[in-house]
Amino acid sequence: MHRPDIVIVTPALADANNGNWQTAHRWCRMLAGAYRVRLASKWEAGEEAVMIALHARRSAASVAQWRSQRRSAPLVVVLTGTDLYRDVAGDASAQASLQAADRLIVLNQLGAAALPASLQPKARVVLQSCAARQTLPRTPQHLRALMVGHLRPEKSPQTYFDAARLLAGRPDIRLDHIGAALDPALGEQAMALMAEYPRYRWLGGLVHGVTRRRIQAAHVLVHPSRMEGGAHVVMEAVRSGTPVLASRIDGNVGLLGTRYDGYFPLGDAAVLATQLQRLRDEPTMLAHLQRQCDERGPLFDPTRESATLHALIGEMLETQTPLTTRDTP
Known about the structure:
By secondary structure, this protein is an alpha/beta fold. The chain has two domains: 5-127 and 301-319, Glycogen Phosphorylase B (Rossmann fold), CATH 3.40.50; 143-300, Glycogen Phosphorylase B (Rossmann fold). It has twelve helices and twelve strands. It has helices spanning 19-31, 60-69, 81-90, 92-100, 157-166, 184-196, 208-217, 232-238, 250-256, 269-281, 283-296, 302-319, and strands at 5-9, 36-40, 50-54, 75-79, 103-106, 123-125, 143-148, 173-178, 200-204, 220-223, 244-247, 263-264. The chain has a six-stranded parallel sheet with strand order 2-1-3-4-5-6, sandwiched between helices. It has a six-stranded parallel sheet with strand order 9-8-7-10-11-12, with helices on both faces. Helix 5 (157-166) runs parallel beside helix 6. It is elongated and about 65 Å long.
């Protein structure tokens, strides 16, 4: 049986240990039964039937090359956080990728709203997924919060730092932080904070399996990010029975839903600190957020993600007709 070839272009390969790599690797596995799939950091030539390119700006050269050499072959551009919520507004190469694409994948339910109205008909929502984990018993002696995010401005670690300072008088609230210091200045702040407030622990970058176990064991995941396409750590927490406190941005609301009660205003460390105290002092609130997360859990089931992805690729191969006009030579 003939299996069409697919290339997934991702600017981040395995050594990056980030969301783009996890998405590309997972999709490769999901599609492998029906297609011959290869991963590449860039595309220069080939006869694949479909290209899936992650990140409009960072994969722009591959997108342009594909459209030049494979003029009528289907092209999917996946919009992650920084390109959807920053680059598409002002970066010419990202905008060119959007025009070249036959389909635009967004990774949260509000993602299409960030696109120009003329491009929204191209958009398809693919919610990412992960395996479910058993909910673990947690100690009643303290509340352990966990932030998982590299130390860079987009993840807003400063909000977490400031909340830790505000909670200095609460020995029963502990804050762990996993993530590499991609911004050295933020790494220095984390080190200084850890020395001053021992209940804040910066654990550095950890491998995915260890990180997932720490998410599973935490009382609450804190996700203060400034921009997200659809954060893996949020869905991993939901699928582990770990409630989430998240900044109220579209990338988070598009995963957790408009009625979720665990949001705080972007950058507002005081509200975050108050919420953490409430979770510690009112156990019923923690249980309430966990129930709300449990209700969202089926959205992030791998079977659902795989079916959505296969349906999209099947549609494109069957029709090979762009949904809207694209600018090609």
